[in-house]
Specification:
This protein has 28 helices and 15 strands. The chain is of the alpha/beta class. This is Alpha-N-acetylglucosaminidase.
Length: about 775
């Protein structure tokens, strides 16, 4: 009897714990949901459907927003008049149902680049009934850095397409970080001069880090007109998102202020922030208002009131005071008081405030000990912090923090840093990780999200994460990737199916703890101390490339599916050339150490040939062009006179990232134009120096090379004004096929095989370090 009583008690506890978890997520989603009327959300969903499939086809769909339905749910039925009715709990749920219909009924899909889908003239809607409810009350998207690495030059046309994509993927929570025009008013009211304010704001490509207190003024001055125009753009974006039922988190005060605040408030408790990535004066550092000082609450409340006045509110606000910055005092009481101060500055303005917090800082486990994390998170009432577990697929913090000490959290996949290219990821860890986090004891997980620093690569992994976030059951990867290939290209071709299974089992099969980002030798400043590594059989990428080429005739020529096929063909060709570069480089290092001059000269020639081929294939792809990035930056400038500073911002972020190589090559891209005029010249200078050292029987002088490459190539590139093509050049398939035949022939060549005996090293134990120079 006693045993039964204990069992009943345990089951009752688990039952109410599960209910509490469900209520936590549902209540939180309801608390921050916009108050947009069902009629407005229905109209927004209708317009989205019309944009995606056109006016004629959209007439076959009816939509209804019914708030009586379960939160984040939809149902699809066919009416007696033959039309398809999609009913959802809000506009986002309707759009998610529309996406389901496109993908799983019509076998057509979209991505970041393809948001228009063509339906046949004689299309007749199939008779389908389907219901679905999200297993995650919150589906989150964005990262503060993505606004500088990907969105920085966007205007509303790009945003309109992207918001459509977000809604169809079921995303219901995002951020809106634009705040400079508001701070200009706040700082002016506090007594700062226009010159002091200008000296604080960073340039457009670096605002994400100015907002988080990492730097100041770099890339500036920021034109006042830019601040106003960006605020107007943010208002349009917010209106479009809320019309669909999305919740938007707005910026709150994190403690950082301009250095000129010392003049205005000489008696305030202000301390200098950490020096982030060795940024020199006058680009570092800013001041931090100590949380016990009344100025903290004064500035925080003043700022948030103006934010709400300008942007409205969904009662959720983000603040990340310690992004790659350490609290001044590593003690529980200090971080507890800081967290309370931040939240109080929100709550005094909005009694229903929820604090959206990135858990990224907790990765610094040497500093952020468990007692510090607990003090920080529990300083705020349970349910009033929503933590983003920013890189759950590789470095989850929810286990270490015991489910964020009861605060609700979102399981997030990050995967990308700096927006750089390269096929990689941990597909197997996504479905299993999400399911495990949901079901772990005392889990406070309330959502799933994607948090890349940049977009434009590895779309499959982000789509997989968002779909698993909605699904209750664990997605089966083989089946999911097979269907992904079918709907991506719109044709049922076994070769294209095999392509994605090969990628799933190679580039997307990483399961370790090694940081994958930036491990591309050809993108790095040349050195004899790089250690390229791969975790998969490279021949699988080569086979995927061959199959992509063979499938050419199955994808219609005059169709947007063809554009997706060619985009992927560029990407796979680029990946193989990148891997080939690594192999040649490893052999070149070996030849140099053995003082084999002829071999070094041969391999140096092959490396430069790879650059030329990389430039050719990238130039054929619409989304691999430096010209588009630069021209978008210049178009955003408020006046012709200000275009040079916008172009400098665009160039510097991709290359030196700072006044003197502070965050070098972090946000670089494998783009046409960069390949020919930045990466190749660096390697050409390096290879000449290495070869000359062997010829003269001297050692390669890296210090001398470093100074030359900085002064002659790297730093000057930011000030160049050369214009680059904004349209593709050449036939992607023809160029890719030519490159395939060329390197396939080399692969059969005995001399080449002798030079490629040394495999690319898996550098788990051999690292050169990110800052080896």
């Amino acid at each position: 009897m006693v045993g039964r009583i204990k069992l009943c008690a345990l089951l009752t506890f688990v039952y109410f714990l599960t209910l509490a978890k469900c209520d936590l997520g549902t209540d939180l989603a309801a608390r921050i949901a916009p108050d947009t009327s069902p009629d407005v959300q229905e109209d927004a969903a209708k317009q989205l459907i019309q944009r995606v499939i056109g006016l004629r086809a959209s007439q076959w769909f009816q939509v209804e927003v019914n708030k009586i339905l379960d939160p984040s749910s939809y149902q699809i039925t066919r009416l007696d008049n033959g039309k398809v009715l999609i009913t959802g709990s809000n506009g986002v749920s309707v759009c998610k149902g529309f996406h389901y219909y496109l993908k799983y009924v019509l076998k057509k899909d979209f991505d970041w680049y393809k948001t228009h889908i063509e339906l046949p003239e004689d299309w007749d809607p199939p008779n389908v009934t389907h219901r679905s409810k999200s297993s995650s009350p919150l589906i989150y998207y964005q990262n503060p850095c993505i606004w500088s690495y990907s969105f920085v030059w966007w205007q509303f046309d790009e945003w309109r397409r992207h918001i459509d994509w977000m809604a169809m993927m079921g995303i219901n929570l995002v951020i809106a970080p634009n705040q400079e025009a508001i701070w200009q008013d706040v700082y002016t009211e506090l007594g700062l001069t226009p010159q002091e304010i200008e000296a604080h704001f960073a340039g457009p490509a670096f605002q994400a880090w100015q907002r988080m207190g990492n730097l100041r003024s770099w890339g500036g001055p920021l034109p006042p007109a830019h601040r106003q125009l960006q605020q107007l753009l943010q208002q349009r974006i917010l209106a479009a998102q809320r019309e669909l039922g999305m919740s938007v988190a707005l910026p709150a005060f994190g403690g950082y202020v301009p250095t000129a605040m010392r003049r205005v408030f000489p008696n305030a408790s202000l301390t200098q922030s950490d020096r982030w990535n060795d940024f020199p004066d006058p680009y570092c550092c800013v001041l931090f208002v100590e949380p016990q000082d009344p100025l903290f609450q004064q500035v925080g409340a003043m700022f948030l009131r103006r934010v709400i006045q300008v942007y409205g509110s969904n009662h959720i606000y983000f603040s990340d005071p310690f992004n790659e910055m350490m609290p001044r005092v590593p003690e529980p009481n200090y971080v507890r008081y800081t967290a309370k101060a931040i939240y109080n500055s929100m709550q005094v303005v909005d009694a229903d405030a929820v604090w959206l917090l990135q858990g990224w800082m907790f990765l610094k486990s040497v500093y952020w000990t468990n007692d510090l994390i607990e003090a920080y998170l529990t300083a705020v009432p349970r349910g009033r912090i929503l933590a983003l577990d920013l890189q759950s697929e590789q470095f989850p913090q929810y286990e270490r923090t015991h489910s964020y000490y009861g605060q609700p959290f979102v399981w997030c996949m990050l995967n990308n840093f700096g927006g750089n290219l390269g096929l990689f990821g941990s597909a197997q860890l996504i479905p299993s990780g999400i399911i495990a986090a949901r079901s772990m004891p005392n889990s406070s997980m309330v959502g799933v999200g994607i948090t890349p620093e940049g977009i434009g690569q590895n779309y499959a992994l982000f789509a997989l994460t968002l779909e698993q976030g909605w699904s209750q059951d664990e997605l089966q990867l083989e089946e999911w990737f097979e269907y992904f290939a079918l709907t991506r290209y719109g044709v049922n071709d076994t070769r294209l199916t095999q392509v994605w299974q090969l990628l799933r089992n190679s580039v997307y099969a990483f399961q370790g703890r090694e940081r994958m980002r930036g491990k591309y030798t050809l993108n790095k400043r040349p050195s004899l101390h790089h250690y390229p590594w791969v975790w998969y059989n490279v021949t699988m990428v080569y086979e995927a490339w061959r199959l992509m080429l063979e499938a050419k005739d199955t994808v219609p020529l005059n169709d947007n599916r063809r554009a997706i096929y060619e985009h992927d063909l560029v990407d796979i060709t680029r990946q193989y050339l990148q891997l080939s570069f690594d192999r040649f480089y490893v052999n070149l290092k070996s030849a140099y150490r053995s003082k084999q001059l002829n071999r070094v000269e041969y391999l140096a020639g092959k490396l430069l040939e790879l650059f030329a081929d990389m430039e050719r294939i990238l130039a054929s792809g619409e989304h691999y062009l430096l010209g588009n990035w630069l021209e978008a930056a210049k178009r955003l400038a408020p006046s012709e006179e200000q275009r040079p500073i916008y172009e400098f911002n665009a160039r510097n972020q991709l290359t030196s990232w700072g006044p003197n190589y502070q965050v070098p090559d972090y946000a670089t891209k494998q783009w046409s134009g960069l390949m020919s005029d930045y990466f190749q010249p660096r390697w050409n200078m390096f290879l000449e120096a290495v070869t000359q050292a062997l010829r003269t029987h001297t050692s390669f002088n890296y210090s001398e090379f470093k100074q030359r490459v900085e002064n002659e190539i790297e730093l000057p590139f930011g000030n160049h004004t050369k214009a680059y093509p904004t349209s593709p050049v050449g036939s992607t398939w023809n160029i890719s096929h030519d490159i395939y035949e060329k390197w396939n022939a080399y692969a059969r060549d005995t001399l080449f095989l002798n030079y490629c005996q040394i495999a690319v090293k898996v550098a788990q134990s051999q690292k050169s370090g990110e800052n080896e120079w």
